[in-house]
Amino acid sequence: AMRLAALLAALRPALPLVLGLSLGCSLSLLRASWSQSGGEEQCLGPPGQAGPLAGGARPEESDGRLGLDHEDFRPRIVPYYRDPNKPYKKVLRTRYIQTELGFHERLFVAVLTSKATLNTLAVAVNKTVAHHFQHLLYFTGLRSAKVPHGMVLVSHGDERPIWLMYETMHYIHQHFGSDYDWFYIMQDDTYAQAEQVKVLVTHLSINQDVYLGRAEEFIGGDEHARYCHGGFGYLISRSLLLKLHPHLDSCRNEILSVRPDEWLGRCIIDFLGITCVSQLQGQHYHTYELPKNTEPEKEEEEEFHAALAVHPVSDMTLMYRLHKHFSRIQLDRTYQEIQDLQMQIRNLTSLTPAGEAGLTWPVGINAPFLPKSRFEVISWDYFTEQHLFSCPDGSPKCELSGASKADVSEIIESALEQLNSRYQPLLRFSKRQLLNGYRRFDPTRGMEYTLDLLLEAVTQKGHSNLLTKRVSLVRPLSKVEIIPMPYVTEAARVQLVLPLTVQDLDFVANFLDMFAMNTLDTHDNALLTLLFIYHPYDAQRVNQVDVFAGVKAMVGELEKRYTEVKIPWISVKTEVPSQVKLMDIVSKKHPVDTLFFLASVWTEINMEFLNRCRMNTISNWQVFFPVHFQEFNPALVYRGEQTSSSSTDFLRDGHFDRHSFAEACFYNSDYMTARTKLAADILDQDEVLESLEVFDVFLHYSGLHLFRAVEPGLVQKYALRSCNPRLSEELYHRCVLSNLEGLASRSHLAMALFEQEQANST
């Protein structure tokens, strides 16, 4: 008995595992037997059903496999085989990975317009819904029509309605048929709720031939056949468009109709056997026919509020009123959804380990950032209604203006609105004065505000009193949007421009060695131009003593070593080496499509950065100003110790020099355009040019995107820069700050001072 008890005690921990395995195997066997017995029966559809389903759905085969229409969506492995008898050919990859994988864009929108409505209703459509649809084109039959600003127009040259519809369908298939899953066609007298249309297509399956819209009967035709009314817009799937295209010519020649939407519907029914439907896959295409002289603000019908499309819209003003009304409806729905979600969060928070103490304010917004050290503390900026006490230029006080002033005004107005909505009708608040204002940007949640307001509170009986109220507000980060950018490649040739002064001679050898090793040896598509800046005194003695003779000898050695490479130089005589003046000289000697990289003598060129220079610089769109990484003074950082060779140590033993704008990547055409505007503004005043850098020219006179970002590929060794006092006060001050902050970190400087005090005390 004791042995049995000991055996049971030893097996007790394993009993749940054994029982679980036994039960699982038993259930698996029972399920397999049921599946085998039920597999002999076949499910039959409704009696008499044949042909395509409503809306174009095709029945599946009886053995459970997908039909031929589904073959495009079945994953399959394509085996790789290369004929050994044929020469190897390099495979050209596609420009985008989604092209290689066969992905399609979601929705393409076509708007049919005419001569009478192109500059009225079409413009109203463009201003109300175009920014919601990523891909939208306008189609008209006009010849050489003048295109309104911000619209992409396709002109077919024939205003006959049937011909316009035929040419539009043919154009969509030819240019976009292989790129999109859905095609939404509407008229310019239609108001469509863009966001609702986008939601609709996300809930529809792309493996069906879809013809969805407001179904209408043909006059004197088959009572079961329907076409989609063009005034309310209709949705066509890619598969239906591909099947319809071969029959478009036949439809044009054989089908007679006055209305283009009837013609298209008859074409789809006659050749594809698919009729228009208003409901598909559980999704309804709601529409509303707008009566004459209607007031959108007074429409209370549920059918109107649920409509995806409203027709007819008689004028631009009515289009804007409809857009305002539906936007208000959508905004109210969004606020209600936010309140419902906040209530759910409150209810669920009590069930979490932290309990109600873990509930953050505002509910549903990320908690504030918690710093792990004093260096990570996000500081608050103090402001009043007239002044800001944290200025971009570093001054202690500046006038509140522009976007900052509008931001403060909106926040105060929002605070009063929230207070009144909470306390009315018992109290009504009005602002007397903003006593104190604080704001900070928290990257985890958004902009935070704390306001001390002097308010006048008025009761229902008319009694008033002054009181001080502190309110906290948050402007949360909204939905992140990807900004479309033009496509660029890494094939552009980079023209390096290196300005040199006498003070830079000690560093030229290292620059040329790195240039030869990282570009000439690797055959990178990069060229170099040297800019010798002579002082007037040195320029007079150049025939006797050339201060740049050693550099020219180094260039000659490089050209002998690399016979296919030529390194030109340009000599300039000036006392004030203004960056803009130097670029003016270089710009005139290169083609307009040249990609410049303005470098400094401490820059160590490498292929990684040159590729980023090519990718981040876009002609007529964007210029790139990298922030290089500046290593600290090794005498202060290591203090006699051996320098670490780890590749990650530079992140600790240096800093990104935000005061330096010496490096820049830009196209010559963009510089010439901005420089022309600058010349018209200042009339080539030399003292103004001496106070500007290339960054200032692009910032104030180009209108391009200025991309300024830290660049870990640009690492510069420590060197004490020479600051020219002849430059403007701002440039000289910035150079001095760069030298001071580049000495060492606070901890290194503190340790150096501590050791010095220890040495002095002994």
UniProtKB/TrEMBL annotation:
GO cellular-component term (any): Golgi cisterna membrane
Keywords: Glycoprotein, Golgi apparatus, Membrane, Signal, Signal-anchor, Transferase, Transmembrane, Transmembrane helix
GO MF entry, a single one: glucuronosyl-N-acetylgalactosaminyl-proteoglycan 4-beta-N-acetylgalactosaminyltransferase activity
Top-rank EC class of the record's enzyme: transferase
Topology in the lipid bilayer: Single-pass type II membrane protein
Biased amino acid composition, Basic and acidic residues: 58-68
Enzyme Commission number, as recorded: 2.4.1.-
Region of interest (Disordered), residue spans: 40-68
UniProt superkingdom: Eukaryota
Subcellular location: Golgi apparatus, Golgi stack membrane
Coiled coil stretches, renumbered: none
Signal peptide: 1-20
Keyword Signal belongs to the record: yes
Primary site of residence: Golgi
Biased composition (Low complexity): 44-57
InterPro entries (alphabetical): Chond_GalNAc, CS_glycosyltransferase
Entry similarity comment: Belongs to the chondroitin N-acetylgalactosaminyltransferase family.
Protein name: Hexosyltransferase
Organism: Bucco capensis
